[in-house]
Amino acid sequence: MNAVFSPRSKQPSWQAIAMFALGLWLSGSLIIDFAIMPLLASAGMMSQSSFATAGYSIFWVFNRIELLCAGLVLASLLALRGTSPLYHYVRRWAILLSGLLLTIALIYTYIMTPQMSALAMQLNVFEPATGMPAGMIEMHEWYWMLEAIKLVAGATVLGWCYRDSHRMA
């Protein structure tokens, strides 16, 4: 027990935590965007009435993981604020970008996923599924714009953390 709580025990490596959370989050986003959803669409699931429920279930879980990763990244960068040798402006931009990443995750979780699922939900069981509703195209455009911003901001912060961790080593 003393080995765990001894004064010589290392503090958590906040760069490692931030890099792990960003790596998990960005790779998960790429897998969902470019592997899982295209496979489901090519298998013909978009034409089935249960697609909205399946999509909501997938994104409900992933959005919570996104929120957790965004919170970890922001908390890690705030913990590094006074101890990191990152240049002053880079540190400030890294915190601002991680706040932007958290905002995007909140938008996905509480605005876009419920709205897109509601648009795709087929309420009349006797009417055949006709494909993508009219408002869904605009929602997809917003989704891909936010996704591009998320990937660029996340890769930028990940690069800064990686460079910072090598400077400290």
Structural domain tally: 1
Low-confidence sequence ranges? 1-9
Helix and strand sequence:
HHHH
Cα(first) to Cα(last) distance is: 29 Å
Taken as a percent bin, the fraction of beta residues is under 5%
Q: What class do helices, strands and sheet pairing give?
A: mainly alpha
Structural Rg: 20 Å
Mean pLDDT across all residues, rounded? 84
Number of strands: 0
Instruction: Give the biggest sheet.
Output: none
Number of helices: 4
Oligomer: single chain
Helix content: over 70%
Name the overall outline.
elongated
Describe what this molecule looks like in 3D.
Keywords: Membrane, Transmembrane, Transmembrane helix. The chain crosses the membrane at residues 16-37, 57-80, 92-111, 142-162. This is DUF4149 domain-containing protein. The chain has four helices and no strands. With 169 residues, the protein is an all-alpha fold. Helix 3 runs antiparallel to helix 4. The protein is elongated, with a radius of gyration of 20 Å.
Short précis:
This protein has helices at 14-42, 51-79, 88-120, 134-168. The chain is mostly helical.
